[in-house]
Amino acid sequence: MKYVLILCLVLSNFVLAQDFTRGVGYFYAHSGDRHEFIKKQLVYEGFKNIISKELEKMGLNKEVFWKKYEAMLNEEFDKIESDLRSKLNITAKSSAAQKNRFKQALREKKLNYRLGFGDLNTIINRYSIKKLSRSQKNANSRSINLEGAVDKNKLTKVYYDFVSDSKRSEYGSLYLNINYILEDITYTELGIENEKDFSNVIKSKWIEWFNKNKPGNISKITELAGKDQAKLNDYLKLPANKMLSNIPPMFVNSLLLDLEVKIERVKYDKRKNEYEFRYSGAGYLKELQTNLVVDTYEFSEELKKYSLNDDISLANIIVNHVYRMALGSFPQIVSSIKNITNINSIQNLEIINYDNMYQVVSLVDDIQSKGIRYSLRTHISHFGKNKAEVVLFFDGKESDIKALLRSLQAAKKDQSFELVDSDNAIRLKFIQNVKEPAKKI
Length: 441
What we know:
Helices cover 42% and strands 28% of the residues. The protein is an alpha+beta fold and 441 residues long. The chain folds into three domains: 141 residues, Thiol Ester Dehydrase, Chain A, CATH 3.10.129; 169 residues, 2-Layer Sandwich (Double Stranded RNA Binding Domain); 86 residues, Alpha-Beta Plaits (2-Layer Sandwich). The radius of gyration is 30 Å and the shape is globular. The N and C termini lie far apart (72 Å).
């Protein structure tokens, strides 16, 4: 029995070890730095190394993440420096000793502040230090070896919090567009004189819900109507490759939530004054910069019976049910919005010498899957007999897309292709395998 117990413990430890990621960190200490201070800085650097490794495993862009992280951290450092300079009354006329004390105090404040910045310390929920050491050539040069267990859900959230955008003023709006379909009943039969009275009540309540649960990457929630509706209609008529450069200012980084609700009267017993209604609905979330659908939603179909008397308003019953019916999908919609990253580049891709549409679609799917680190979205804008045209929306540079295609080129053994120089687009040409004719005996 003891042997079984020992084996279980060994296996348990092995499983736990598999959950850990190894990391290293380096820090240059100053004379006078306390041991605990140095240790915290080393752990922070080690955490950054572990997080970088995990981002790579998850196919996320660590370079973009750290670039935006450092930019936001430096903004905070500027505030810290300004406050401390004012507090210590440091000017150009301050003595060398005063300036030196300011420099030392500023360094310590900055290094302590970064330890909790961005919630990096919450991503690794447990860790163990394997080794702390110092360089033999320079005693102030310190290093750490450690292992940490990463909470991937928290890492994903922190990642998108940083890469989605860096300034709240740049966040866009969430536009709501709601369409109601009534079957076998009219608004008049519901006791509603004005159709807008019905839609406005529900719309205002839904907007109120989204305002209370507004994602951090959305500045405001509003109805799509009037001039905005007309501008959007004109904008959506543009070719996909012209959209990013011609987007109206109010639609920058913005989303459209299009909801459709169907209300169908199934039965009506006039003698008993009983109604039976079927409710259904759906929606989609669209990114206005690219005109691409981000996510789709379907409301559960429901069948409801109502027995009415003079004190009950059929219109009120239906309004309340429609309002509640969509609420079940709203948390999922908010989650989808939080995970959307903004794009800053557009690239045309031409595909030629393919056998069929399946070959093109399969390749485009692979490109989008591989391009997650660049927040890549794809749109097949044209498919013809000899050429397919694809629009790539992404966060990066043209060289990033070419590097991505080359890596895919090396990985795909079943479908060989080559990149061909072209003036206006990246051109990809499939290489067809030509079978040699059988030799006659």
